[in-house]
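Following up on my earlier thread - several people asked me to post the actual chain instead of describing it. Fair enough. Here it is, all 287 residues.
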Amino acid sequence: MDPATPDDPSTLVSTNWLAAHLKDPDLRIFDASWYMPDAGRDAKAEYAAGHIPGARFFDIDEISDARSELPHMAPPVEKFMSRMRAMGVGDGHQVVVYDGSGLFSAARVWWLFRLMGQKNIAVLDGGLPKWVADGYPLTTAAPTIRDRHMTVKMEAHRVRDVTDVARASKLGNHAIIDARAPGRFRGEQPEPRESMRSGHIPGSRNVFYQDLLNADKTMKSKGEIKTIFENAGVDLAKPAITTCGSGVTAAILSLALERIGKTDHALYDGSWSEWGMYADLPIATGA
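Reply from S.P.:
Thanks for posting it. Predicted structure:
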């Protein structure tokens, strides 16, 4: 982490911070690794082979809304609460979430906790690769689970549905920011999901999530983040809506916005998996 960017237990913490707090009694750690189907990686198997001591596995696909046909949509409050209780995570805990890519799917879980009204949640900057590179230990031991109640108050302003986004696109009163790769945003590359149109939501701007990360997958400094958004044509004076392919990397944009002090942002949970599926929704192509 940039030394000018201090650890913040509500957004992003360094491997050094986590190592220093590893034995805190109220620390809870999640391995939230999730990979695209074509990545050829098994997140659960990798967790079993070695994880940060004390980490539980957070299954993004399972802890979701089973009633929706869209991938890993935010779960109902009751399901989130029951899964957290079963994993011994509750009120008074500081949660740190990481993933095996560096900084990828962990941000999705950070956003989900914030959606559920939880403030003491941070992403491990650089994730598991940085933890290992910095010489910190892994274990195969399962964590000790003790039941803990979690008080959840869903903050509905942190999520947007297709109707909200369609209205924002038409009125131009929000900054809609798309985290997908430029080729997908412009409609030049096919979507990874079948029967999906190519292009982007009209009026949206493209900030590829990888552009916000350094070579070691840590997040860039606050000044660099702000410049990247501005250079992409994002009007930071407007409330923001983040989007991507299926609501995972959009959360990296949300985390980056939070880092620079912009709090009026929401995530389009259906993202392109929903927008690209319906022929009656308008799409734009090109830059």
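The chain has ten helices and ten strands. That should answer part of your original question.
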